[in-house]
Amino acid sequence: MKVGMLLPNYARWFRGDEIWEICEKAKEMKLDSLYFVDHIMVTPHQYVGYGNGYMDQWAAMSYVAAVTNIQGWAPILGQCVWVVPYRPPIQTAKVIATVDSLSNGRVMIGAGSGYNENEFKALGLNIRERGDYTDEYLMAMKELWANPVASFHGKYINFDEMTISVRPAQQPHPPILYGARGPRPFRRIAERYDGWVPGAGKDFDSVKTTEKEWAEINSLWHEYGRKGKPYLSIAPAFRQLTTDKSKVGHDVVKGVGSPNLGDPDMVTLSGGHSYERYSDGTERSYLSTFTMTHVDDMANLMRAYSDIGADMFVAHLPSYRYGEFDNKSMLLNQMDMYAEHVLPKVNRD
């Protein structure tokens, strides 16, 4: 199993020299991937939990691609996830092709449909059509990536005999992993995408759930006549690592509740999957919760995911101020723990 980490492209302190230093540390650890997260416009209350300096995901990835090129290493550049409906699809296809070209073919797309009602509304999008947006946008992008001159006709996108001129280094396109659960996403993965990027969950029960769902995806994969196997990338695992067993299980919570928080409707999909949907005029609170996890438990969790067939495990290590640590020092401390106490106990590819 390959291993990586999520970069804090959401944090105000993570710029220039700090990006260089964190990437250099990741190189020393021989990490296989660097992942990014995605939000565009959030409410002031959500901002506290989401992050206080959210850079555009693709612009940040391009910068990190250049940094790692200069540093002389080539980590996979992934997402958990890129919210597909948020950006114009033709322009985004060109951006992704550019980043893949500049990084010499290191982009691994982690696509998602999004969930934040406030963000969809601010961007002029209907959240109830998020799945349709995602499906059509990605279909159109694949045409643009694979063909020097492309045509596409759908509900949202229409063009004839056009080109974005730049082609991704990976042909016909960078691998596309999809980050959602439920019957429709699983069929989409099996039919047209290259793998799955689910969250790691809180405990070992989540490994069992993922194992069951992964078997379902693999069964559908063969049902659709696909060759090979889908790619499984587990990300992100929200953990604060510790060697102190007395701290295990405690949560560090960052963020504030919203005064406009409503009672969400629970929407249940076929297959038993459910999610919360908030109505207009209310606001989804966002709290970042990092569970204190003993380094041995983290290694055990990663081995459990490796045993069910995971190809990549991406850790989300904290970079908040904690005790004597400022933001950067906290992340470097956690990376040291990850390197010293966790990674040697995991069978790495």
Structure description:
- By secondary structure, the chain is α/β, with parallel strands linked by helices.
- It has one domain: TIM Barrel (Alpha-Beta Barrel), CATH 3.20.20.30.
- The protein contains 10 helices and 15 strands.
- Strands 1-2-3-5-8-9-10-15 form an 8-stranded parallel β-barrel, surrounded by 5 helices.
- Helix 8 links the parallel strand 9 (195-196) and strand 10 (231-242).
- The longest helix has 20 residues, at 204-223.
- The termini are close together.
- The mean pLDDT is 94.
In the predicted model, the low-confidence regions spanning at least 5 consecutive residues are none
Proportion in helices: 25-40%
Morphology call:
globular
- Rounded mean pLDDT is 94
CATH class: Alpha Beta
- The CATH homologous superfamily: Luciferase-like domain
Q: Which secondary-structure class do the elements indicate? A: alpha/beta
CATH architectural group: Alpha-Beta Barrel
Alpha-carbon distance between the two ends:
5 Å
In short:
The chain has 349 residues and is α/β, with parallel strands linked by helices.
Write the layout of secondary structure elements.
Blueprint: E1 2-6, H1 16-28, E2 33-36, H2 44-50, H3 57-71, E3 76-79, E4 82-83, H4 89-102, E5 107-112, H5 117-122, H6 130-146, E6 150-153, E7 158-162, E8 176-178, H7 183-192, E9 195-196, H8 204-223, E10 231-242, E11 251-254, E12 265-268, E13 274-277, E14 288-294, H9 295-307, E15 312-316, H10 327-342
Helix pairs in contact: 1-3, 1-10, 3-4, 4-6, 7-8, 9-10
